[in-house]
Specification:
Elements (H helix, E strand, L loop, with lengths): L1 H22 L8 E11 L2 E5 L4 E6 L2 E2 L14 H12 L3 E5 L11 E6 L6 H7 L4 E2 L8 H13 L10 H9 L6 E4 L5 E5 L2 E6 L1 H17 L2 H10 L3 E2 L9 E3 L10 E7 L2 E4 L3 E5 L9 E5 L10 H5 L3 E11 L2 E5 L6 E3 L11
Parallel strand pairs: 3-6, 12-13, 16-18
Antiparallel strand pairs: 1-2, 1-5, 2-3, 4-7, 5-6, 8-9, 9-10, 10-11, 13-17, 14-15, 15-16, 17-18, 17-19
């Protein structure tokens, strides 16, 4: 009986130990796959043949300068970074390991890439100054990569050469878009881009506008960019409004999609609370109108429907088509000028 009880205790203890081992056993190793790097797209992106399955692989934790980004121009050291990655991996059998996330929002596979000799490509790009640490998303080598980036910076490798002066000269040589920033009164800032200006920006507002410009300039056509900037409260610099030739409101329909100045008398005006409509013909459903949206009311005289009705005006902006008629949305008073009456012909009926 004593032996039986001891055997039962030993059995129960062994069973409990087995269960604890199963419960607290380490999880499976992160997945790894061997593939052949067949094409390098840019410094941090490549195509790999994984058992006859073509994968576009985005390297985790590193961000190299853009070469083929749809919304960004070619950046400094992009060619060098792409050539480095090409020399390191193209045509070679590599090991690709995953992390917590296996795909990005574009469907690309996210991976750590190791060469046949064990070289860790992601880390090597950072160490040699071909890329920055990509900190937007967490990854398991963040601390190690941060130390490698600091090492590259201290030794002025690659992107860090001459403490950034090499990149600045490259930007000037390639006529990169530039912005002029001015300190203004009251701790505010003013910023200018080509013929556009925006004033009374606090520090956060300045940063937001510069970031917006950085992404919108390569993305939009000049015409769409102007419309976008004016809708955000940017203004044309003094004199730019008057450089655009003026046409009669009756010809507005010929200039849809164009920036132009239009002259005519506002015969009817209506403020719905959401927008103010300045109409140049009693039949506003068919003919040209100017629209001021409520979000911009504060920039105009109070009750703009009263300020402009019955007045001969010149409006400058981009003509758009809305429900079959020409229309122009304006966002600031600099886009509308009251003209002296000079025997303007009344609107046709």
């Amino acid at each position: 009986m004593f032996k039986t009880r001891n055997l039962k205790k030993i059995f129960l203890r062994s069973l409990l130990l087995c269960l604890l081992t199963i419960i607290f056993a380490p999880g499976p190793a992160r997945s790894a796959e061997y593939c052949t790097a067949v094409k390098v797209i840019d410094g941090d992106t490549l195509e790999a043949d994984c058992e006859r399955r073509l994968e576009k692989v985005r390297l985790i934790g590193v961000d190299t300068p853009e070469k083929f980004h749809p919304e960004k121009p070619v950046q400094f050291f992009a060619e060098e970074a792409a050539n480095f990655t090409r020399k390191m991996v193209e045509g070679k059998r590599v090991r690709i390991e995953s992390d917590a996330e296996s795909r990005d929002r574009y469907g690309r596979r996210l991976g750590y890439v190791y060469l046949p000799d064990g070289t860790f490509l992601n880390a090597e790009l950072v160490r040699q100054g071909y890329g920055f640490v990509f900190r937007r998303f967490p990854f398991r080598f963040l601390d190690e990569f941060s130390k490698l980036e600091e090492e590259a910076r201290e030794n002025q490798r690659g992107l860090w050469q001459e403490n950034g002066l090499a990149e600045f000269r490259w930007l000037q040589k390639n006529d990169a878009d530039s912005f002029q920033v001015y300190p203004a009164a009251g701790d505010f800032w003013a910023v200018r881009y080509q013929k556009y200006i925006k004033t009374h920006l606090d520090q956060n507002g300045l940063a937001a506008e510069l970031q917006e410009l950085r992404f919108k300039i390569p993305e939009l056509s000049p015409l769409d960019l102007e419309s976008h900037l004016l809708s955000r409260g940017w203004r044309l610099t003094s004199g730019e409004e008057n450089k655009t030739r003026a046409v009669s409101w009756e010809e507005a329909g010929k200039y849809v999609g164009s920036r132009i100045s239009i002259e005519g008398k506002v015969v009817i005006a209506h403020n719905s609370g959401k927008a103010c409509f300045l109409n140049f013909h009693p039949n506003w459903k068919r003919y040209f109108s100017v629209v001021i949206f409520a979000s911009d009311f504060a920039r105009f005289p109070s009750s703009p429907e009263k300020a402009y009705v019955g007045k001969l005006v010149r409006v400058t902006g981009i003509v758009q088509e809305y429900e079959g008629r020409p229309e122009m949305a304006i966002s600031g008073p600099e886009q509308i000028q009251i003209l002296p009456e000079t025997g303007q012909t009344p609107p046709r009926k």
